[in-house]
Amino acid sequence: MLAHFLTVVAVALAGHVAPADTSAGRKLVRLLNAESAQLIERGGVNYRKVTGPAQFLHNDTYILCDSAIWNVEKNVVDAMGNVQVIQNETVLYSDKIHYIADSSLAKVRGNLVQLIDKESNTLRTHYLDFHTRDSIARFFRGGSMRNKDGSTIESLNGVYESKIKRFKFLNNVEMEIDSTLVKSDSLAYYTETQKAYFLGLTNVWQDTVYLRANGGWYEREAERYLFSENAYILTREQEVWADTIYYDKRASFAELTNNIQITDTVQKTIFFADKGVYTREPLTATLSRNPSLAYYSLNEEKRDTLFLSADTLKYYTKTIGELDSIFVASSIERYEESKRDPLERLIENVKRDRQSQQPKPTGPGRNTSINPQPPATAPPDKNNSPIDTINIKPITNDSISLRDTVAESKLSDTTTVRFALAFNNVKIYSGEMQARADSLSFNSLDSIARLYTNPVMWNEGSQFTSDSIQFIITSGKLKKAELLSNAYYISREDSLYFNQVKSTDMIGHFRENSLFRFDALGGASLLFFLAEDSVMTMMNEKECKFLSAAIDSGKLSRVKYFDGIKSDLFPLVSLEKGKDKLKGFKWRESERPLSRFDVCNRDIKESESEKTMKIEKPLFPNTRRFFPKTEQAGNTDLPLKKSSDLMHSLPDIQR
């Protein structure tokens, strides 16, 4: 009993020995408890050999160990065996430390150096320096941190700032949180909020989505990201670029800002804008601030692209089961109707009408042809001849074969239908075809794009206007343009005169996105101009019930007139003023986009998918070293107490 009392007294006296130089501001290390503290001499220097368990106190930091060599004069403690450094609710574990009190620096080394904070985040390394005055730990030569849920972050070097609960992982950072893998140059992680900040080039893999940026942050609890500085997303069907991307994983929703490009490889569509809202599944995109899109198709080695812009673009998908049954039925009916050729039906009607007007022969040899020929002696009927008296070759009818969603698949409630809407100042450019309107709508169920409010379409040298225009699209190509109500065709013949056709409705037929034929249906009026020796001399004015015209390089080439034909020729020298224009004439060439840059002035980013697929995912070499697979997530291989339990077992002097 007496010996134990003397040991405790010796320890207490030793703990209160002051160093010689107090002017340097050195703070004393205090020995709070030990089994013994013996004075020993090594190389002319006096040390105290402390055996324990022992407890030291400095900078409100406890150092616990099995034994220690204490240089009181230099204020240095070398602690060994089951070493624990405890400050507030952060605990360091190691085999040994070298504590330089004047510098408030604990050099922690060992087979396993482990730091556990208040939130039970466990950092492991072999090399760590802990600054007790600032509550800052720095690890190097590799380290890995795992939280209580088993998520890990590792890097070559790093810093832990206890006062603000922040880990900074520097160089070769690799992170795994839930189903998310991250590789980054550097990363800061706040343990209380579970928020990570990306401090350099960062690659993220999340389920089937890849994300990349040079900066931003990640909120684990809410599963939200902000990617800044050249952000990029790759999915199975889309590639997305923007200066900034805010991404909510749970909602599969992203807000994009500046230099946006969304490439949908399935739909062969590229979207551009400076502000957008994007949902991955199902794909939706609402774009504003200079939005545009490019709709491309591949035909052997030829690539055709249609560019479209408006003040606002909206793209979304729905399944058949989500749509109104009346809408679905109407769309299917429109689709089937779009495959038919109205001109053929009109010709058949004319044939039937003529047949019904012919007297029926009696007796043997009755003619049963639906298109009987007049007797050879009968003169041709000028007013009812289906072919113009001018030398015009007949037009070969180009059959329209549409193959799209309806034709190639059986519709079910899960069939996906695509919708595209464009609002205000719609402009279109596609090679030889351009258009403008106030608004546009499209759905893939009927494959019809509708232009509304003062629409106009140009093809090479031709201009078409009507109350509304419908584009029939199949396999990514324009097949027909239907001009509904007040249809008007104009082509410039020379600097003064314009060929014109006016009709109730018109249909333009396209081959490789170039107009080769148009039909005027329902009371057609026509003006075209004739030249002699390259000088315009005559105007031909015609009327008929309907006509079909061949187009070559944007000009009328051949015309077939049908039923009720009237024709007059007028010398231009005696033509009354204004007679060279049909009612409603308006030449809108000044509105025409001259190149795709008048519609979309964006540089198109090339696909990065192949390069991205070659990026190596995290391998976690430090995590495999410090957290063997045999360990359970959140457990350690050391019999350690919780930091809160250790705090309660220490003297009240720290509180």
Question: How many helices does DSSP assign?
Answer: 7
- The shape, in one word, is rod-shaped
* Binned strand content: over 45%
Terminal CA distance reads 31 Å
> Low-confidence parts lasting 5 or more residues at pLDDT below 50?
1-26, 362-409, 632-649, 651-655
Number of DSSP-assigned strands: 38
Quaternary organisation of the protein chains: single chain
| Biggest sheet record | 38 strands, antiparallel
Give me the Rg, rounded: 42 Å
Class derived from helix and strand content: mainly beta
What is the helix content?
10-25%
Residue-averaged pLDDT, rounded? 81
Structure, described:
The protein is mainly β. Helix content is 10%, strand content 52%. The chain has a 38-stranded antiparallel beta sheet that branches. The longest helix is centred in the middle third of the chain and has 16 residues, at 342-357.
